[in-house]
């Protein structure tokens, strides 16, 4: 007797629109898009620095364009959002054991945010010293 | 008792090729599970409905279905949790045999591929292995899997590529790798190191969300990535 045929529902391209959990996941992954723009800006800045004074001034002008500032602000917010999701996942991937006990996840998340604050303070200090 | 309308996705291969939705009115109270509702439909309304179930207490892992696009065990989700419409479909990402019955062959093949059993040829512990509570604690959380397959239906990476070993199989591999009685890690690592092993996971995390036993497969798979990276690095220095 022939086996009755089974049907295999295919996953369509818009699968991530079907569930709020997947939308949040895609938002996390999409944070890379404004970051690509930020990295491109940085690389363009380095390149224009090599090209000479005029090119550098042009790049500075470009960076002051409201649209560019808005996109880079978006990249900043997106990277903070990504960090927020990443920091929560980190204790599950790398559970740290100290003296036979697993560190509480909240403590690890807090430690990572303290790291972010430390880096920001350091960057601000270097920036202000240069002015 | 109040009445609730539920929609069930039907698929009858002997009658036609396309799956379709069928509505049923089911009486319910606070204790009516999705499985109770399916049993009511089969016993009182339409005897041709097919689905799997056994223990009714979230141990056997047989009654997995999609309820409103979320994988659930029919026995431990309840009609009272749903205010709006209730749509019951077979578990996603698997071939459907009939109505709510899926073909789990692929899932079972993936489980077998990681050799999910103690491998130990040392001769020690031929009667019984000794293990301290601290040693057991390392893998205990990952050993609660009941093979219900909900995590596979929650995983878009498995949906996009059925060759991906998937959450449950990779969790089992990690569970045995962490077991102090086991020496089979070397045999399991080649499976985990494959692209269809741990590296196909993008930490969507929905598998852990739907797991009825709180096994946290997403954590196990991503801890597996750390192990896989270490294994590859050691391999480079050894060769």
UniProtKB/TrEMBL annotation, chain A:
One Pfam family per UniProt: Fumarate_red_C
Membrane spanning stretches: 30-49, 69-87, 107-128
Listed name of the protein: Fumarate reductase subunit C
SUPFAM superfamilies: Fumarate reductase respiratory complex transmembrane subunits (SSF81343)
The keyword Membrane belongs to this UniProt entry's keyword annotation: yes
Keywords: Cell membrane, Membrane, Transmembrane, Transmembrane helix
Keyword Transmembrane helix: yes
UniProt-listed InterPro entries: Fumarate_red_C (IPR003510), SQR/QFR_C/D (IPR034804)
Cellular component terms (Gene Ontology): membrane
TrEMBL record, chain B:
The keyword Manganese is assigned to this record: no
Single Gene Ontology BP annotation: tricarboxylic acid cycle
Keyword flag Iron-sulfur: yes
Lineage top rank: taxon: Bacteria
UniProt domain 4Fe-4S ferredoxin-type: residue ranges: 136-165
Pathway recorded for this protein: Carbohydrate metabolism; tricarboxylic acid cycle; fumarate from succinate (bacterial route): step 1/1
Record keywords: 2Fe-2S, 3Fe-4S, 4Fe-4S, Iron, Iron-sulfur, Metal-binding, Oxidoreductase, Tricarboxylic acid cycle
EC number, as in UniProt: 1.3.5.1
Signal peptide annotation: none
SUPFAM superfamilies: 2Fe-2S ferredoxin-like, alpha-helical ferredoxin
PROSITE patterns reported in the protein's UniProt record: 2FE2S_FER_1, 4FE4S_FER_1, 4FE4S_FER_2
GO MF terms, alphabetically ordered: 2 iron, 2 sulfur cluster binding; 3 iron, 4 sulfur cluster binding; 4 iron, 4 sulfur cluster binding; electron transfer activity; metal ion binding; succinate dehydrogenase (quinone) activity
Coiled coil stretches, renumbered: none
Cofactor(s) of this protein: [4Fe-4S] cluster; [3Fe-4S] cluster; [2Fe-2S] cluster
Family named by the database record: Belongs to the succinate dehydrogenase/fumarate reductase iron-sulfur protein family.
Protein name: Succinate dehydrogenase iron-sulfur subunit
Species per Swiss-Prot/TrEMBL record: Halomonas lysinitropha
High-level lineage: Bacteria, Pseudomonadati, Pseudomonadota, Gammaproteobacteria, Oceanospirillales
